[in-house]
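Field log, afternoon session.

UNIT: design team B
ACTIVITY: writing a sequence onto a fixed backbone
BACKBONE:
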């Protein structure tokens, strides 16, 4: 026993020390630059060895709420409990790719937490930090729903292992990758400062301009805003790139910390008490967006505000508080993972998310606890996750109808696309309070546009859209249907309100050639005019009645914002079109 004592002592020392050594195997790098990184940034080589021209044809960047095949994370032992909770959600929705060089220990930790590893893929690559949103690639599709690929920008931090991660992901999954790292296309950008609606519109802070201007520390060529926009269009299909002023108390200047696109026309925005922290600048930025831009449907963005919580002592970022928000969330198919902080502020936020996104599995993960205080590092859930979209997506775009006139017929319109074509589409609907759905077949109008007429009475309608591709793939929108759905309120509308609802938003929008509108049983002659932003009349015509689809060819010389006005017995309705 005496000789065994040193052996047992060594065993217990190693048993205690090994987890500590593993936890310290990588120094925790914050979301922003360390002091050491600030000192070496001007000497660091940011360009990669792989250089690629942009895709040869048109591409589309997917929206975050579209179907994903892979959830991506980098395993930082210092935040393993947060990461395990993310994986627990992810494996029920898709495949989860975990970057780690300690597969055995990570696998053991996950299985100890009751997680089935069937959908987990381990990628044995070196890495520098947990902030994968900023350095991983972004999913694009050729011709909207065609070949899947990744686009990679130059990472804005001197972290070489993080910087090559998109190449490793592309190799793992077997995807083409396009890198904005060639000649004048050497664009610095980060995923936390990018948000896309899937229809060619994207949001960012003006950080994208600052990091690519003359005198930038990255050694990339100086670019004008127009040149940046051109790169984003060539590599990602972004046709309208909305940029807002940076916030004074957000040291990272990434919009995902205070804003989230929930769908093509809804913005969820962090709200501060009047005059506090970044509240005034956020309000100015949203006002700028509302005054100058419309959604892809030609309608004002619908802004929803969610309070940003202070510290337990009441501190916000302007007086020492961390940048706590509920908008730094990630969509993983039918689940949405959001950061949480403490019960008294989390409860209302989770309830509001559920109200905004009915049918989704809303999961809160604490990022503000003493053991794993992720928010103190200036990031949260969206910052430490990324996704890769599915191969051959079945893409459904529909502007929800919020209200309708009672005892009327409502046109339900959608753009539906799949690489194999669409075999059929349906609208499932029920009156509010009913437990079972009815169904109405949709008809192909033209190209990828489908429509169905729905007769409503005096009760609110709950509905969703179903589509099946020729390949057999099926999809609903909302994705969580039938548990989640859109609600159409029914009541007595004024003539002008009725007409506005029965003249659809223009599609596609923005557009390069023509804009189409669906007109739903509007009686009498209709005068149609097009004006530019200066009020100059560019076109006019008159049609005998309004029922079906009308397509207006737009002159190649017309650029920018156009106003299409419909006048008739109902009064006047104006829709906005962005002509590229």
């Amino acid at each position: 026993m005496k000789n065994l004592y040193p052996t047992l002592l060594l065993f217990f020392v190693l048993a205690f020390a090994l987890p500590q050594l593993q936890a310290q195997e990588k120094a925790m790098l914050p979301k922003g630059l360390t002091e050491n990184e600030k000192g070496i940034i001007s000497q660091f080589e940011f360009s990669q060895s792989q250089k690629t021209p942009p895709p040869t044809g048109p591409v589309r960047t997917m929206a975050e709420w579209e179907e994903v095949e892979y959830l991506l994370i980098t395993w930082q032992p210092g935040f393993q409990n947060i990461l395990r909770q993310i994986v627990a959600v992810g494996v029920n929705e898709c495949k989860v790719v975990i970057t780690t060089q300690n597969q055995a220990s990570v696998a053991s930790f996950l299985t100890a937490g009751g997680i089935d590893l069937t959908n987990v893929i381990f990628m044995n690559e070196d890495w520098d930090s947990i902030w994968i949103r900023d350095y991983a690639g972004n999913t694009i599709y050729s011709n909207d729903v065609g070949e899947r690929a990744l686009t990679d920008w130059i990472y804005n931090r001197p972290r070489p292992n993080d910087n090559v991660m998109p190449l490793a992901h592309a190799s793992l999954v077997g995807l083409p990758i396009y890198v904005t790292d060639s000649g004048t296309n050497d664009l610095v950008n980060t995923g936390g400062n990018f948000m896309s609606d899937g229809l060619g519109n994207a949001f960012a802070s003006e950080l994208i301009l600052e990091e690519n201007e003359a005198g930038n520390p990255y050694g990339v060529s100086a670019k004008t805003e127009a040149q940046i926009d051109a790169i984003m269009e060539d590599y990602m299909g972004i046709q309208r790139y909305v940029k807002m002023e940076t916030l004074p108390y957000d040291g990272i200047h990434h919009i995902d910390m205070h804003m989230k696109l929930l769908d093509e026309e809804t913005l969820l925005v962090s709200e501060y008490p009047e005059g506090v922290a970044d509240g005034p600048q956020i309000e100015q930025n949203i006002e700028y967006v509302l005054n100058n831009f419309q959604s892809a449907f030609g309608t004002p963005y619908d802004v929803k505000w969610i309070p940003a919580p202070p510290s337990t002592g009441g501190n916000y970022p302007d007086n020492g508080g961390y940048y706590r928000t509920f908008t730094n969330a990630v969509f993983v198919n039918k689940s949405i993972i959001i950061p949480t902080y403490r019960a008294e502020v989390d409860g209302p936020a989770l309830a509001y998310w559920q109200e905004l996104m009915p049918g989704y599995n809303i999961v809160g993960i604490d990022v503000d606890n003493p053991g794993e205080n992720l928010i103190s590092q200036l990031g949260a859930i969206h910052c430490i996750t990324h996704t890769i979209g599915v191969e051959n997506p079945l893409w459904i775009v529909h502007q929800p109808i919020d209200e309708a006139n009672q005892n009327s017929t409502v046109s339900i319109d959608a753009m539906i696309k799949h690489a194999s074509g669409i075999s059929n589409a349906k609208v499932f609907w029920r009156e509010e309070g009913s437990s079972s759905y009815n169904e109405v077949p949709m008809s192909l109008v033209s190209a990828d546009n489908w429509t169905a007429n729905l007769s409503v009475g005096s009760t609110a309608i709950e509905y969703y859209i179903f589509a099946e591709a020729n390949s057999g793939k099926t999809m609903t929108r909302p994705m969580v249907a039938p548990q989640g759905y859109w609600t159409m309120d029914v009541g007595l509308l004024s003539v002008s309100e009725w007409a506005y609802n029965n003249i659809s938003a223009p599609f596609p929008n923005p557009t390069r050639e023509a804009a189409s509108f669906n007109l739903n049983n509007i009686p009498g002659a209709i005068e149609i005019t097009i004006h530019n932003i200066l009020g100059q009349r560019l076109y006019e015509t008159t049609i005998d009645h309004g029922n079906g689809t009308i397509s207006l060819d737009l002159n190649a010389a017309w650029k920018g914002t156009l106003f299409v006005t419909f006048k008739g017995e109902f009064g006047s309705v104006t829709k906005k079109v962005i002509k590229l």
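LOG NOTE: The CA atoms of residues 433 and 460 lie 9 Å apart.
NEXT ACTIVITY: expression trials, pending approval
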